């Protein structure tokens, strides 16, 4: 990534009170985000520091004027992941964009978020999460935090493309609940292996869905959580599925940013019960399915699927872009040699697909975008 001069800054964002709950029982949670900006004037030493894991030290730089009309990407991860697992993809997007001055002008900046009980947010919110009567942060609560961010000064005047993987796809679709369709800043969506389906489809596949859910919960609760050091942790995951299928850069990000140092050794930041609680959280994904139907003819939705349908049946996938369900897709990409964890397995191919969407969105006329802003 020596051609990608990317400046990174970390933000801790205040989250809203959980809807339908008292603030005493459900104290507001922090959301941690990283902002990524292309800066051609960055020194190579800054880039080297970043790539070696010294992130979040960039200045509060402003994009140049030719970038302010570009697109802003917002990345949401899936269950059990964290924001930095998007970094190989984000860096590849910047690298590809930097090869063309026209392409570069299409990209303003990128942000990646931690679900409030994952990654750095899990550490910041640990006490507040433990005070809650039960574990878990619903996709509704995460979506509300992200839509609050979209309404903040950080995003004033931005044209946003939310990108969600797996459970994060449902969360980014739910952000539309907080905007009138005619005035939403989201100009397109990219959904990567989304776990979005209707309640009727869930019920029709209930045995298969429950089996996969219970398997995920069992594996999460049985998983090892402590290692002597990061190198031992990296080697341990590299020898075991799914780490055997992951790109080394993503696995390194998982070990470097998804784990914390303790007196006993290196441990996962996300508590096992918090991760496990996310798998039965299906109601939000049902509503996300309705939102897809309602908005897909107005806001372009792009799908990225793994060629191997390891998690969602092909007919459920197809329904998200099937006219018989009242839905359409702007584009559909299939990533070869990958399964449901395609973000972890094929970050460069994901980046290429994202750049194709950037090119497609850039071809939309100003009037087409401004008509909804």
From TrEMBL:
GO biological process: acylglycerol catabolic process
Domain AB hydrolase-1: 73-353
Top-level lineage group: Eukaryota
InterPro entries: AB_hydrolase_1, AB_hydrolase_fold, AB_hydrolase_sf
One function term, GO molecular function aspect: monoacylglycerol lipase activity
GO CC annotation terms, alphabetical: membrane
Name under which the protein is recorded: AB hydrolase-1 domain-containing protein
Taxonomic lineage from the root: Eukaryota, Fungi, Dikarya, Basidiomycota, Agaricomycotina
């Amino acid at each position: 990534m020596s051609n990608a001069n990317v400046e990174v800054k970390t933000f801790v964002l205040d989250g809203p009170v959980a809807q339908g709950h008292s603030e005493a029982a459900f104290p507001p949670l922090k959301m941690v985000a990283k902002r990524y900006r292309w800066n051609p004037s960055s020194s190579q030493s800054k880039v080297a520091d970043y790539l070696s894991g010294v992130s979040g030290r960039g200045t509060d730089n402003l994009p140049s004027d030719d970038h302010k009309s570009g697109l802003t990407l917002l990345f949401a991860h899936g269950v059990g992941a964290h924001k930095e697992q998007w970094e190989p993809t984000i860096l590849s997007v910047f690298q590809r964009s930097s090869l063309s001055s026209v392409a570069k002008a299409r990209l303003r900046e990128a942000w990646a978020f931690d679900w409030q009980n994952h990654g750095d947010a899990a550490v910041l919110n640990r006490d507040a999460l433990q005070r809650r009567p039960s574990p878990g942060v619903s996709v509704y609560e995460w979506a509300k935090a992200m839509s609050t961010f979209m309404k903040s000064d950080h995003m004033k005047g931005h044209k946003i493309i939310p990108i969600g993987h797996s459970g994060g796809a449902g969360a980014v679709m739910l952000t539309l609940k907080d905007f009138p369709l005619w005035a939403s800043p989201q100009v397109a969506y990219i959904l990567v292996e989304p776990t979005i389906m209707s309640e009727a489809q869930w019920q029709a596949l209930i045995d298969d869905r429950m089996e996969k859910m219970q398997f995920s919960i069992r594996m999460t609760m049985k998983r090892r959580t402590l290692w002597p050091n990061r190198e031992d942790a990296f080697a341990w995951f590299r020898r075991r599925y799914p780490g055997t299928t992951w790109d080394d850069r993503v696995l390194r990000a998982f070990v470097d940013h998804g784990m914390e140092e303790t007196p006993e050794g290196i441990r996962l930041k996300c508590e096992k019960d918090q991760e496990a609680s996310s798998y039965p959280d299906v109601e939000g994904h049902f509503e996300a399915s309705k939102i897809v139907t309602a908005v897909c003819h107005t806001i372009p939705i792009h799908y990225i699927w793994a060629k191997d349908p390891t998690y969602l049946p092909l007919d459920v996938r197809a329904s998200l872009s099937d006219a018989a369900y009242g839905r359409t897709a702007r584009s559909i990409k299939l990533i070869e040699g990958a399964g449901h964890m395609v973000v972890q397995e094929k970050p460069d191919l994901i980046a290429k697909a994202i750049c194709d969407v950037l090119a497609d969105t850039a071809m939309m006329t100003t009037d087409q975008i401004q008509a909804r802003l």
